[in-house]
# Entry
Amino acid sequence: MKIFAVGGYDEIGKNMTCIESEGEALILDIGLHIENLMGQDYDVTSMTRKELRQLEVLPDDRILEGIKDKVVGIVIGHGHLDHIGAVTKIAHTYDCPIFVTPFSAEILRGQCMEEKNYKLERDIRVVKPGETVRMGRSFSVEFVPAAHSIPDTTISAIHTEEGTVIYANDYKFDHDVTLGHETNTERLAELGKAGVKALIFDTTRVERPGHTGNEDEAVQKIRNAMAECDPEGGIIATTFASHILRHQNIILAATEMNRRVIFLGRSMEKYIACANRLGLLDLMGSRVFGRKNSMERALGKAEKKKFVFIVTGNQGEPNSVLDRISRGELPYDFSKRNDSILFCCEVIPTETNRKCRDELERRLSPLAKNIVRDLHVSGHAAREDVRKMLTLTKPEHVIPTHGGRARLESARDLALEEGFPDGNIHLLHDGEMLEIK
# Structure
């Protein structure tokens, strides 16, 4: 069995892995490196693969040139752009179907409609969490339900004659899920007892001690912050556009305060449309505006004390709605100094994100009455959750990914603590191949 570390092993994002077994190959995720797009006004839909590779935004799949004709399927674990965002740029070069869960399928169809350079004439097959699908002669892929910060996330259990590989890239253990699925720990334990050849796992928060909390902890933080806002002022909340459960909880909290919600931003518009088509979100009278002219009209007409504005820009992304509000490019009136800005998120731990967010807050601080940060619970496993994944699955080979070098090394230390042999812990770089027997 060969495991190709195409992308995501030297950085957070750009996830792409390939497994070759018994003469066939399977691709897991094809994501973007979002950090390298920050700070510039790039239109990814109109850019070529060559242009994006020069920016180190795409996984460099040239390592797979010799086995392209062996690829029998592409499996996407969930709909975040660092896992699905490069599908329209790369997947058409492989003659095989793409397997996605329902929410990810909605996102992918939207990306296909927007893509300007490449036509993805591939079979998009929708798989429900919990199902198992045969791919080619060599692979049987089990879509194990997982909790994360986006609906329909799955952990892939790839069964082959050479053994089972578990690809757990991204997950958390949340036992109070109100939208989506809990991570199926019983099934993971069963797989561990049966024998797992290799575990490939997310290390984004492996350096954080303890366990990642449940989403209801974030809900309570948000409710408390909203209760303390000036009743005569506006409330601007910003979070990840794909976090549908977070949107629903803010809508509920706003309704209890006799406020309605207005969503602002193109990515908000896209993700909410996907959620609506699948019946995942009750807007409860909320309005959604994605185009500049419609956003300007909505902000100009809205009586701020009657609304909560949920906007893009939680990481300080240039040209996001909150960035443009902070620069005066969208008509939000801060003159009464009674407005609250709620960051219902954490800063993604990269240098570019921290810089963009710091610059955004510097512009907002003189304008708002108060800024509240970190109203959030992560969708990623913390250190003790990673330990739990290792003990549940008991893999022969340990392969950390999605975190950058320091986090991968921290994951190795954790695996050593749990008694895994150092020779079976593999810290790969992008572009490397590991053969295991």
User: Anything to note?
Assistant: The chain has two domains: 2-211+379-435, 215-372. Residues 5 and 147 are 24 Å apart (CA to CA).
